[in-house]
Design brief:
The chain has 151 residues and is mostly helical. Helix content is 75%, strand content 0%. Helix 5 crosses helix 6. The protein is globular, with a radius of gyration of 18 Å.
């Protein structure tokens, strides 16, 4: 079993003992998402820590989007609950890149590929994605690449 999955399980057990409803709910949801990913497809498989981080990143993004939707609908209590779940999930994700760090990586990837113009966005993204995996949201990375290539 991967170290991250084991940590999620032990933290869930601790949260249940402490009667921490938010943490318990969030960790259960996370472990369910991981299990669903493991059994998806034709054969079940054991996820690596890297795969689990991808699942948790996807779940955190869902929480951000749900919080935004609830806030726009004037349902502040549900929005706050979604944000709180997102905060719990972020504890298990790698630290996010700052704007400066992301810009440096984008400049380096552009130099590495020799890309010019907006048609080369895909080429740069192919080189950049493995370097930022889990540390920056794809839309944020794509926006920075596009900004650099169209400037």
């Amino acid at each position: 079993m991967s170290a991250l999955k084991e940590k999620l399980r032990s933290d869930l057990s601790a949260a249940m003992k402490a009667r921490d409803e938010l943490r318990t709910r969030t960790l259960r949801m996370s472990l369910t998402a991981v299990t669903n990913e493991e059994v998806a497809g034709k054969r079940s498989r054991e996820l690596s820590d890297e795969d689990i981080v991808k699942v948790l990143t996807r779940e955190a993004k869902k929480r951000r989007e749900a919080a935004e939707a609830f806030a726009q609908a004037g349902r502040d209590e549900q929005a706050a609950a979604e944000r709180a779940e997102g905060t719990v999930l972020e504890e298990y994700l790698p630290a996010q890149l700052s704007d400066e760090e992301l810009a440096e990586l984008v400049v380096a990837a552009i130099a590495e590929t020799g890309a010019e113009g907006p048609r080369a966005i895909g080429q740069v993204m192919k080189v950049l994605n493995p370097k930022v995996a889990g540390r920056a949201e794809g839309g944020r990375v794509a926006a920075e690449v596009k900004r650099r290539l169209t400037a």
